[in-house]
Design goal:
The chain is mostly helical and 493 residues long. 77% of the residues lie in helices and 0% in strands.
Length: 493
């Protein structure tokens, strides 16, 4: 019932805004919302709502690959790709595309975790391998990630409806959030996967249309692909940053990792590889929008300035592709939040049964997982949009969060090493977080920067930080082995 009230209210607000502003963008927003609501199935079981299952069957290869891909082709992502294309030419697009190696890394490592340990989530795996403290720290990281996903995507969509902070800007963010929330409440992860397939097809068609206008107007493909230099100052430093961060980046994104547990392990691995390769191609191609803006000397954000260059029809096309990409990420964010709250946090709270959590535990015991998950969706939808008032930088949310979780690389890449203990996790994780905070607040020594490029400091802190976190991860093991040798019977005698 709640989801029906939401989408009806969105329709009224959207149509009212269309009449008052005369902008066709509002009509497309309402039409998009209605289509997504009506194609979303109703989930009635935990398997459907949290695992995306259909009639007892796990998610197949094509739905999984499509869903994983479109959830990473989010509004923030394609905006960043276009802006990097404008800043560095094709090198900028390739740099951002390198982040999609995360699919391959996650596919291989989670495949091994699933087939070796039998765990059904990263939270349960971390609890058994490194203890509940590790799970709490990891959960904190992904909650921040999910929080960022909400405002950073709605901000991109809202920018097509009005200046930052304006009434139409805020209203557009509220409407796209509410529309997405309405069908997410209805079907959970099952709705997300179903709508993702449609959103991917729509995004691909719109990309082809955009490129059909952009490429001829730029003088051809060759001219666009040769704009840029593969040097540290030309954006190669960001390519290297992406390669380093792909070892840790995927594991703090539950939108991706949740999907690694909803299909058969082999199906998941194949789907993740296919999605990664397709994502790299999509992002590189979309960065040509920024390359076009660079060639034409357009000012302002590359997506908006390019759309304005071609006139109102193209502006509408860009608006629709942003709606599609933002919606696909938002519904996945909501389903991830619901699963995190109902399937990870809630069971831990029941298990620990701490005295000061008595009332909360009693509430959890009386609430069904789906209801609890739906409540979590509503909470993140509201609080996730509050940063729009502060107008934070979009790119910073992605890049810095990737730096902060660099400590996850040794934790997951070397989880199988015998002797790595709980302290191994915390040494790597909190060191990475501390280095990420140094980067966020500009406290990292500039003389350590690698090269003279824009991302020289970021490359430095990720390279040296990854080495440090990996060394600290193995430190307890080395200390223990050294102590055992020192106290061995032979030496004791």
């Amino acid at each position: 019932m709640a989801h029906r009230v939401l989408w009806i209210a969105c329709c009224i607000i959207g149509l009212g805004a269309a009449v008052s502003t005369g902008s066709p963008n509002w009509l497309f927003l309402v039409l998009y919302g209605l289509v997504m609501v009506f194609i979303s199935p109703l989930a009635t079981t935990d398997q459907e709502f949290f695992m995306g299952a259909r009639k007892g069957r796990t998610v197949g290869f094509w739905p999984l690959a499509s869903s994983a891909l479109i959830t990473w082709i989010f509004a923030k992502s394609i905006t960043n790709a276009a802006n990097l294309g404008k800043a560095f030419g094709i090198v900028g697009g390739i740099a951002y595309a390198m982040y999609y190696l995360s699919f391959m890394v996650a596919g291989v490592i989670i495949y091994r975790i699933r087939t070796t340990t039998g765990h059904s989530s990263l939270a349960s795996f971390l609890t058994e391998r490194f203890g509940p403290g590790a799970t709490i720290a990891f959960t904190l990281a992904i909650v921040i990630r999910l929080f960022n996903e909400v405002w950073s995507n709605t901000a991109v969509v809202a920018s097509y409806f009005g200046p930052s902070g304006s009434t139409t800007y805020i209203l557009a963010a509220v409407v796209i959030t509410a529309f997405t929330l309405s069908y997410s409440l209805k079907g959970g992860l099952r709705s997300s996967i179903m709508t993702d397939v449609v959103q991917l097809v729509l995004a691909a068609v719109l990309l082809v249309f955009i490129l059909s206008k952009v490429i001829p107007s730029s003088g051809g493909v060759i001219r666009m692909l040769t704009l840029g230099e593969f040097t540290l100052q030309g954006g190669l430093d960001l390519v290297l940053v992406a390669l380093l961060q792909s070892l840790s980046y995927p594991f703090h994104d539950p939108v991706l990792t949740d999907r690694a547990f909803i299909s058969e392990p082999k199906t998941m691995r194949k789907a993740f590889f296919a999605a990664g390769l397709a994502g790299m191609g999509f992002i590189t191609l979309f960065s040509l929008v920024g390359v076009f803006a660079k060639l034409k000397g357009l000012s302002g954000p590359s997506t908006i300035s390019t759309a304005q260059f071609f006139g109102l029809p193209m502006l509408i096309i860009f608006n629709v592709i942003m709606l599609t990409s933002a919606g696909s990420t938002l519904d996945s964010t909501f389903s991830s939040v619901s699963r995190l709250a109902a399937k990870d946090i809630s069971p831990m709270a029941r298990l620990w049964n701490l005295p000061w959590l008595g009332r909360a535990t009693a509430f959890l015991n009386q609430t069904s997982p789906i209801t609890f998950g739906q409540g979590a969706m509503v909470v993140i939808a509201i609080f996730g949009n509050l940063p729009l008032i502060a107008d934070p930088a979009i790119l910073k949310a992605t890049t810095i969060s990737g730096t902060m979780v660099m400590g996850l690389a040794p934790i997951f890449c070397f989880w199988w090493v015998k002797g790595a203990c709980r302290i191994s996790f915390h040494l790597a994780f909190w060191t990475g977080l501390a280095l990420g905070l140094m980067a966020a607040f500009g406290k990292y020594p500039q003389f350590l920067a690698i090269g003279m490029g824009k991302y020289g400091s970021l490359l430095s802190i990720n390279l040296y930080g990854l080495v440090l976190c990996t060394g600290l991860y193995f430190l307890p093991l080395l200390v223990r082995n050294g102590r055992q040798r020192f106290l061995s019977p032979t030496q004791s005698a």
